[in-house]
Amino acid sequence: MSDALDKAEQAVRAAETDTAAVQLAMAAMELAKLATQQQAQQRSPQDPCHHDHHKAGRSSGEWIGIACAVCVGSIGLAFASLALAILGGVAAIVVLVLRDMWRDMQRKGR
C-alpha cells in the first residue's frame, strides 16, 4: 500500500508542476496578445504602412548612359547590316563566276 501511496504522491507533485507550467504558458500568451493590441493601437489609420510609395525618376546621368548605349547599339546594327550586304554581293559574284566556269567546261567537253 505504501507503493500506491508513493505513486499517488508523485502524481500529485507532477500535476502541481504541470499546472504551474500551464499557468506560465497562459500568462505568456496573454502578454503576447496585449503586446499585439498595443502595437495595433499605436498605428494611426491614416498611415497604415511606414515605407515610401514615391519612386524617384532616373537621373540625368542614367539617361545619358541609356542614350549612349542606344547610339552604340544602332551603329553596331548598321555595321552588321553593311557586312551582310557586302557578303550577299560577294556570294552573288562567286555564284556567277562559278556558273560561267561550269558553262565553259561543259562547252569544251563536247
How is this structure best described in words?
The chain folds into 2 domains: 1-42; 62-110. The chain has helices spanning 2-42, 60-109. It contains 2 helices and no strands. The protein is mainly alpha-helical and 110 residues long. The longest helix is centred in the C-terminal third of the chain and has 50 residues, at 60-109. The mean pLDDT is 80. It is elongated.
At a glance:
This protein is mainly α. The chain has helices at 2-42, 60-109. The chain has two helices and no strands.
Q: Main β-sheet: number of strands, strand sense, barrel status?
A: none
Radius of gyration: 45 Å
Structure classification:
mainly alpha
Order of helices and strands: HH
Q: Determine the number of helices (DSSP H or I, runs of at least 4 residues).
A: 2
Global geometry: elongated
What's the rounded overall pLDDT mean?
Answer: 80
Can you lay out the helices and strands and say which pair or pack?
Layout: H1 2-42, H2 60-109
Entry keywords:
single chain, 110 residues, mainly alpha, 2 domains
